[in-house]
Design a protein that fits this description.
By secondary structure, this protein is α/β, with parallel strands linked by helices. It has one domain: 3-Layer(aba) Sandwich (Rossmann fold), CATH 3.40.50.1820. The protein has eight helices and nine strands.
């Protein structure tokens, strides 16, 4: 397949059984990390799991195990610019940078091409936040034919930008990029090692929040800091591209979207509108949940898993 890659293990979050990570090289030379987590028995199907911004594969070990227990082989990956995949701005590993949405979609297609023979069908595309927005764009731009269904958790279909009209924000960010500020911090550096649970707006679950903190402390290269103007431009372009997509209106496969009731980062109204455009689209919110529904309390997560199980029963009966 490719050169083996590492997976970080700590006592509280060991690497799931049978896991194997690999390095892949994108068309422009960027090195990407992927990991395959086979189901123990005869697979029911496969899930391609795409994390959100800042999130490495390791953060999803619990989710991987839950999918394996449901009979699904899982392919997870680090997006370019985060996790142990190659960072995009020189020596500063903390900068969360991007150069448009097209490189991400090229990476996604390449990863699927390389692993397709090891992903038994039916396949479900499962993405969270930035990974959810890119997953939805991938099945509309690259084609849906690799998948039988799409599951999204709090997808980044639009950013919450208080006080700015989206068009004005896009013009401003585009101008900053054109005058050479694309790779500079948009809101200044952020230190993930100094953040506290009390100040986080991502999850109400302290043990899960602390567990990921211990993972990045065990391997500091997993951590990612603040975004650049280039990343903000990418996020706005992604939202605009999704809104203008005609393929979404004729998407023939089921699309389930689970949003957070106490969302602070992405726009639920935009997400709901996009989900309703899909012929087989379904939208629901988890009351009281923060953005990272998959990393929330057990009670919040149970609602997300109930929706996944409903979708899986439709396209991949046990």
């Amino acid at each position: 397949m490719s050169d083996p890659a590492p997976l970080v293990s700590i006592p509280e979050a060991p690497v799931p059984p049978l896991a194997a990570a690999h390095w892949l090289t994108a068309g422009d030379g960027v090195r990407l990390r992927c990991a395959l987590f086979p189901a123990d028995d005869t697979p029911r199907g496969s899930v391609v799991l795409s994390p959100g911004r800042t999130e490495p594969i390791e953060k999803y070990y619990e989710v991987v195990r839950e999918l394996n227990e449901r009979g699904f082989t899982v392919l997870a990956h680090d997006w370019r610019g985060q996790g142990l995949s190659q960072r995009l701005v020189g020596a500063d590993r903390m900068k969360g940078h991007a150069s448009g949405w097209r490189p991400f979609l090229s990476d996604y297609k390449m990863i699927l091409d390389r692993f397709r023979d090891r992903l038994p069908g039916p396949r479900i595309a499962f993405g969270h936040s930035m990974g959810g927005g890119l997953t939805l764009l991938a099945v509309t731009e690259n084609g849906h034919h690799d998948f039988s269904a799409v599951m999204l958790s709090a997808p980044m279909t639009g950013l919450k930008i208080d006080g700015f009209h989206p068009t004005f924000a896009a013009l401003t960010v585009g101008l900053l990029s054109r005058i050479g500020l694309a790779s500079t911090y948009a809101l200044g550096p952020q230190d993930p090692f100094s953040e506290t649970f009390e100040d986080n707006g991502l999850t109400h679950d302290a043990p899960r929040w602390s567990l990921h903190r211990r993972q990045i402390e065990a391997e500091r290269e997993l951590a990612l800091g603040g975004v650049t103007w280039g990343w903000v431009a990418f996020a706005l372009e992604l939202s605009a591209r999704l809104k203008s997509s005609r393929a979404l209106d004729t998407l023939p496969i089921p699309l389930s979207v689970v949003a957070a009731g106490e969302e602070r980062l992405v726009c639920n109204l935009t997400t709901q509108a996009l989900a309703r455009r899909a012929p087989k689209g379904r939208y629901m919110e988890v009351p009281g949940a923060f953005h990272e529904v998959l990393m929330e309390t057990d009670a919040h997560r149970a609602q997300m898993w109930a929706e996944f199980d409903r979708l899986a029963a439709e396209v991949a009966p046990a």
